[in-house]
Amino acid sequence: MKSTQFPSDCMIQDNKYYQWYQALMKKRMLHPCDPDIYSERHHAIPRCCGGKESSPIIKLTAREHFIAHLLLPKFVGNQKHQKKLVFALWGISNQSTSSQKRIIPNSHIYALAKEAYSRSISGDNHWMKDPQKRQALSEKCKGRKMSEETKAKLSKRFTGRPITWKDKIGAANKGKKRTPEMRKVQSEIGKKRVLSGEWKNPTKGKKRELHECPHCHKMADIANLTRWHLGRCKHRKQS
């Protein structure tokens, strides 16, 4: 039987949640799920905690899989690993796929997962505040080109949506490159306008007028209506 002991850098807290988790893992290692019932694969030691080749992959029922991810952030003390486990819990709480039958949590569990996820990405905790990750993402995306299949999908998605002023500006500036001198001048102009109060959101603190989307009938202000509804609404019937 493969070990389910976590690496030392995970800073495991030997509390009741850890004991429950280990009991669940051992139960399913000794008594695997019936092949006739629906089950999901789970790394007993999550990959973000160092469990790759050494981690046993255990089949759990959908409910057991959800409980396992609910327990993990409660005993892994390493904050870096804990943030990833919270993200996984949030994903398993609200994201579904064609191959996985997700358990729908009650309102209390959903709120717990959402609040934990919100705390894990707020302020300086957000991954985009990490210079190393920003640099890694930049290097990863350099030179990347979209395939013709991806271009076709994007074209189909946005065909028929209303033309906005952003589209017109984008078309006018397509292919143009700003020189370092232009960037510096525009930056200085922007700073002066912010300091002088010229660039100030006139609607900040005011109640915005709501409009109804003709496709999903949800109410939203004009900015969100343009961004998420109208021609981009996921409930819009494709012609």
In DSSP terms, counting alpha (H) and pi (I) runs of 4 or more, how many helices? 9
- Arrangement of strands in the largest sheet: 1-2
What share of the residues lie within helices? Answer: 40-55%
Strand content: 5-15%
Query: What's the end-to-end separation, in Å?
Result: 56 Å
Low-confidence stretches: none
Cα Rg: 24 Å
Helix and strand content put the structural class at mainly alpha
Overall strand count: 4
Order of helices and strands: HEEHHHHHHHEEH
Net shape: extended
**Biggest pleated-sheet summary:** 2 strands, antiparallel
The average pLDDT score comes to 84
Strand and helix map with partners:
Layout: H1 16-30, E1 40-43, E2 57-60, H2 62-71, H3 79-94, H4 107-121, H5 131-141, H6 148-158, H7 165-173, H8 180-196, E3 210-212, E4 219-221, H9 222-228
Antiparallel strand pairs: 1-2, 3-4
Helix pairs in contact: 3-4
List keywords for this structure.
239 residues; mainly alpha; two-stranded antiparallel ribbon; 9 helices; 46% helix
Report on the structure:
By secondary structure, the protein is mostly helical. Among the domains are: 8-127, no CATH class; 207-239, no CATH class. Helices cover 46% and strands 6% of the residues. The strands form two sheets. A two-stranded antiparallel sheet has the order 1-2. A two-stranded antiparallel sheet has the order 3-4. Strand 3 (210-212) and strand 4 (219-221) form a beta hairpin. The longest helix is centred in the last third of the chain and has 17 residues, at 180-196. It is extended, with a radius of gyration of 24 Å. The mean pLDDT is 84.
